[in-house]
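Team,

Forwarding the record for the chain on the shared tracking sheet. I've put the sequence and predicted structure together so nobody has to dig through attachments.
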Amino acid sequence: MQLTHENYFDYDANWEYMSNSQYQGFLKCESQQMALLHGLWEQEEIKAFTEGKFLDAWNNNALEEFKASNPDLYLKNGIEFKAEYRHLNDVIEFISKDELLMESLSGEKQRIFTAELFGTKWKIAIDSYFQRDGKKEGRIVDLKYLKSLYDRFWTINEDGIAICEKTLEHRGYLDQVAIYCRIEQLANRPDKVVTKDGKTYPDWYEPFITAITKSKPYPDKEIISFSTEGQSYHEFIDYRLSFIEQKMPRIIAVKSGKEKPKRCGQCQYCLSTKVLTGTTHYSHFLD
């Protein structure tokens, strides 16, 4: 199917294409992600998601559409935010004064690309896309609205070991950066390569994350890059993609129905469908 902004999140599009959010969903709980795909489960629309959608709408010059889709956020006049959302106007005013931040968001909005990778078709929609043009290098910029850039999250990995992840890792944003760069390159320059430090890589555009936090009264803001002295963003992308590639055979098998999805036992879907069949030894809760 031909993807557009109107059908990007549709049922058929989600079945035909993999996305980063879908990939992250499978990593967190296969059963919940399959229920979402089948339309048997709908994630609760929490305030944080709504605020993020507002920022996306502002960046995409689509505030009127946002208002029409979210009338409960506004007073009866349909113009002013209700009290709990008025801070969003302050956030926009605050970040609009930062020239470098605004420049990072000045590219083409929500540019959609598709390509096949790791045995399945993927879809991406880039928040701010800068096509290579003469002396200007190509860039991919993703906008994030976060509680904090420095939060820590304890999680259990696939080996049953508790690990601590920081925001960018926990939210799947590092994987998203790598996926976006690879899909964009496959869609536009599939055969073109570059050499960095004696190693050949696909011709990826340089990625950035423009991050704005919800701290009050003043949000924090950063433009996050992925190149440092001694390590290029090409190495970062190559490293992240190698891990994603390892996960994809299992995900494809589950999505296609060849393997039964596993339950994480802790997400809202698993809790809502939990049926007791016996007892659990107390030591299970001490690990």
